Amino acid sequence: MPRRDDIKRIMILGSGPIVIGQAAEFDYSGVQACKVLREEGYEVVLVNSNPATIMTDPEFADATYVEPLLPGPVARIIEKERPDALLPTLGGQTALNLAKALYEDGTLERLDVELIGANYDAICCAEDRDLFAQAMAKAGLKMPESDIATSIEQALTFQDHIGLPAIVRPAFTLGGRGGGIARTPEEFRTIVERGLDASPIGQVLIDRSVIGWGEFELEVMRDHCDNVVIVCSIENIDPMGVHTGDSVTVAPQQTLTDHLYQQLRDQAIQVIRAVGVETGGSNVQFAVNPETEEILIVEMNPRVSRSSALASKATGFPIAKIAARLAVGYSLDEIDNDITMSTPASFEPTIDYVVVKWPRFAFEKFTGANSELSTHMKSVGEAMAIGRTFGQAFAKAMRSRELDTTPHLADRTTLDLVSTLARPSSDRYDVLMEVLRRGVPTAEIHAQTMIDAWFLTELEQLAQQPEEAFAGVRTFKSVDTCAAEFPASTPYFYSGWERPDADGNARHEVDRGDPAEHPSVVILGAGPNRIGQGIEFDYCCVHAAMTVRESGRQAVMINCNPETVSTDYDTSDRLYFEPLTLEDVLGVLEVERPEGVIVQFGGQTPLKLAAGLLEAGVTILGTSVDAIDHAEDRGRFGGLLDELGFQAPPYATAHSVEEAIEAAGRVGFPLLVRPSYVLGGRAMEIVYSADGLRDYLARHKPAGEAARGEIFLDRFLENAIEVDVDALCDGTEVWVGGIMQHVEEAGIHSGDSACVLPPHSLGHEMLEQIRAQARGIALGLGVVGLLNVQFAVYGGHLYVIEANPRASRTVPFVSKAIGVPLAKMACRLMLGETLADLQLPDEARTFDHVSVKEAVLPFDRFAGSDALLGPEMRSTGEVMGIARDFPTAFAKAQAAAGASLPGEGTVFITVSDTDKPAAVAIANTLHDQGFKIIATRGTADAIARMGIPAEAINKIGEGSPHVVDWIERGDVQLVVNTPTGSGARTDGYEIRSAAIARGIPCLTTLSGGPAAARAIAAARHGEPEPLSLQEIHHRDGATA
Amino acid sequence: MPSHDATAYVLLADGTRFDGLACGAETHAVGEVVFTTGMSGYQESVTDPSFAGQLLTFTYPHIGNYGISDAGMESDAIHARAVIMRAATNTEDAPTAERGWLDWLVDCGIPAITDVDTRALVRHIREAGSMPGGVFPASMPQDEARQRIAAEPSMVGRDLAKEVTPKEATTHGGGPHASGLVRVHAIDTGIKGSIVKHLVQRGAQVTLHPCTVSAEELLATDADAFFLANGPGDPAALDYVVETVRDLVGKKPVWGICLGHQLLCRAVGLQTTKLPFGHRGGNHPVKDLRTHRIEITSQNHGFAVTAPDGGLRIEADEPVRWSTDFGEAALTHVNLYDRTVEGLQLLDVESATVQYHPEAGPGPNDALYQFDRFLDAVRSA
Question: Which of A5, A347, A438, A779 has fewest C-beta within 10 Å?
Answer without folding.
Answer: A5
